[in-house]
Records
---
Amino acid sequence: MKIAVVILNWNGTKLLEQFLPSIVQFSPEATIYVADNASTDDSIAFVKANFPTVQIIRNESNFGFARGYNEALKHIDAEIYALVNSDIEVTENWLQSIIETFENEPQTAIIQPKILDYKRKEYFEYAGAAGGFIDKYGYPYCRGRIFETLEKDKGQYDDNCEIFWASGACFFIRSSVYNELEGFDADFFAHQEEIDLCWRALNKGYKVKYNSQSVVYHVGGATLQLGNPKKTFLNFRNSLLMLLKNLPKKQLFPVIFTRLILDGIAGIQFLLQGKSKHLLAIVKTCHL
């Protein structure tokens, strides 16, 4: 299958220097692209000078994750898109089992590999770990972590199972399905747009799967730090947007009402921790 590995970049020269070599080395099956969100550093010059086989797509502005990929993928001809964060280290043969699954399972539209922590390689990484799910109030979670606690990889999730959502840190999708769904929702800018896309794919009858034979290592938080109030705002706002878009109408009011109460409690917790900017970020979500 024709596969394109697409790395979205914004002022990420250091990340490209550190992580692009593994992708080039271990992706002989793929064409590799750097999709640049109008960087002002020397990212493009670095790629051109050191990785001449890597193709470059220039976006006109910093469109964020969602629209950034939507714009870049318009210029790529491939059956499979592998959307890979710039802080991902891949391993040998990481594409083989993914390609085999797509070839053998026509209804499988989206796949996530096993995502381990680059800094502690025997542990799962927060963003996706061993496959994502969602609870009845729309809060996402995944196998391999409980809140902030990450599990050690002992082979407990060495399966290939159906999941609810795949992590955007390393996200494989059939281009035909991506185009059918009109890509990511650009209103999300960043965070949880991959969950929304997976939910829409599931609503169309497609499958989302986790593949443990494909292993990658993720730094996490390299582009927008965990303690950034903007990240808090995007996570809370986008989670509500996702529910408004995808929940059946009969479930919408009770779930949204409960979520607003729970999000308010989270805001109070931030206030008690002295994180007033994070409280304000949650309050801003009320202006949806």
Note: Residues 229-287 form one domain.
---
Amino acid sequence: MQYNTQQKKMPLPEYGRSIQNMVDHALTLEDKAERQRCANTIINIMGNMFPHLRDVPDFKHKLWDHLAIMSDFNLDIDYPYVIIRKDNLVTKPDYVPYPQTKMRYRHYGHTLEILIKKAIEFPEGDEKRNLVALIANHMKKDFMAWNKDTVDEKKISDDLYELSKGQLQITEDLHRLMEARLSANRRPRQNNNQRRNYK
């Protein structure tokens, strides 16, 4: 008894050993017309194995590419399509450059630095104060993700001052706004069922 592990490795095992044996048989045929008929029959059988893909564009083209791959590009027939080249089978992906963004404090992330730059450009007023309060509260959350013990308010204030190059700072007024925002977020929402008056 011969096990599959003892047989020749199949380039496309999804088609099974029977199809691979048909391709190997086609390679032994000396008459080109007979080889062509054999190849057409193999393609039809391969297509019947995946009927749900018949409507996929270039499905037939892919089958002929697969036939060429299974024959190790040695099957001398007239292919109806330009088949894939052997040297294009294994291609390296394009180089993806690693982002070289320099961050002063990585735990705050690059997006926060962009927000700080935008806040600097805002004209003075309530909108800017609200944005700076949101940024500072977000810095607290990021800081807590790395240091779960305590949040040093002075550290957050110093980091904001440093990242904004001295153009943004947490004042007493802004600190009260931050606290008001945090307490509003902590307030539990009232369940609609609790407000119903049962008689």
Note: The radius of gyration is 34 Å.
---
Amino acid sequence: MKTLEGGMRIGLTGATGFIGSHFALLAHGRGHQIVAYSRGQKEAPVADETLRQPPQAAHALPETKLDALVHLAGESLMGLWTAEKRDRIWKSRVDFTEALVTHLGTWKEENRPKVLVCASGAGFYGDSGPEIVDEASPRGAGFLADVCAGWEKAAHRAEALGMRVVNLRTGMVLGRNGGAFPLLRRVFGLGLGGRLGNGRQWMSWIHLNDAVQILLKALETERVSGPVNLCAPEAVTNAEFTRQLAAALHRPAFFHAPAFALRLILRGMADEMLLSGQRAMPRVATEMGYAFEHPDLPGAFAALV
């Protein structure tokens, strides 16, 4: 399997975020240089250089010599899915990526990255029920599926610029210091945890360490392009996830959130993020020869708690 030789100069959006900051630490430790793009004054924990994005045109990344660009920035999916929230989600992912790729076309060819790794989500598959889905499976239905499909299409416009494009279809990323796990740990630690709805919806998850290592391996492996599922090889139902987390924390999990209450409070977010899910498998990661540090949920929770 052919990989890119030597240390690369990697541009990174979302460098101060949960996944971005840990990816930067890993890539830097493997001998790559990190150029962090930032919209605010917050400094990336690990960066060889930080470039500020123009406040009124954040997609116009300051030009510099790059071998690869990892684009992870986007509006959080958490919160009430009002019309305004949905608009921000779409614009920060689809419209922003379209503008970003267009801007990269104005760069000098010798400076333009050869690889674009762009975030996406397992929501691409919609609510797949118990059916196993992998990178060859068709897109599903719903707002998140539309966003992910539009996001990936926008990223693939970079192929016309001679760039290899990788789309990261990310499941729930479990880490100590970010994502959903800290909140889940507090709730379950108080004995207030429980399943969501009937608990039969499938959850694709991945430990943070595995997520950033697969990301880097996909970036470094020249034959990899298109979608890559960032998920562990053993998806679980919400009921099983609940049982395993409660066991890891040695707490009961008697409570459960009725579907009607979640829909009443959270509107569309409940149906697409909490009451439905995907039984996704990491076929491409396996074909790359990646060996998971945390292939099963009990082991992942043991490492986290």
Note: The chain has a mean pLDDT of 92.
